[in-house]
Input
Amino acid sequence: MLKIEHIGIAVKNIEQSNELFGKLLGAAHYKMEEVASESVKTSFFKIGESKIELLEATNDTSPIAKFIEKKGEGIHHIAYDVSDILSEMNRLKNEGFILLNATPKKGADNKLVCFLHPKSTNGVLVELCQEIKD
Ligand code: ZN
Output
């Protein structure tokens, strides 16, 4: 793994949280993006090399809606930057981690992503992400 790419934070109202995090970080978000397949609206903030991703559910069946219902707002996942997502998925699977996707899928921010089940990672949802180069 190369570095922590971003930290995902589940929020109830992304417009309000954009303002809050803009004040907190001293810089506005640089993009918003909806990921229809995950039923989420996202926004991204840059702090040096790292990013913060805010996530708001777009419907009641969204994983973010379920997360907030269970745990409230807060840190939802930690995303690690990888250079070769397929080999990293293979390595982690062989180490006994539970992958939530058998193949990488298209995530927000021009990334291929794969999630690891929190029950195999001490309760922390882990996202692997690899930048899509065109
Ligand atoms: Zn993420």
User: Anything to note?
Assistant: Strands lie at 3-10, 31-35, 40-47, 50-57, 74-81, 105-107, 111-116, 126-131. The chain has a mean pLDDT of 95. DSSP finds three helices and eight strands in the chain. Residues 5 and 116 are 15 Å apart (CA to CA).
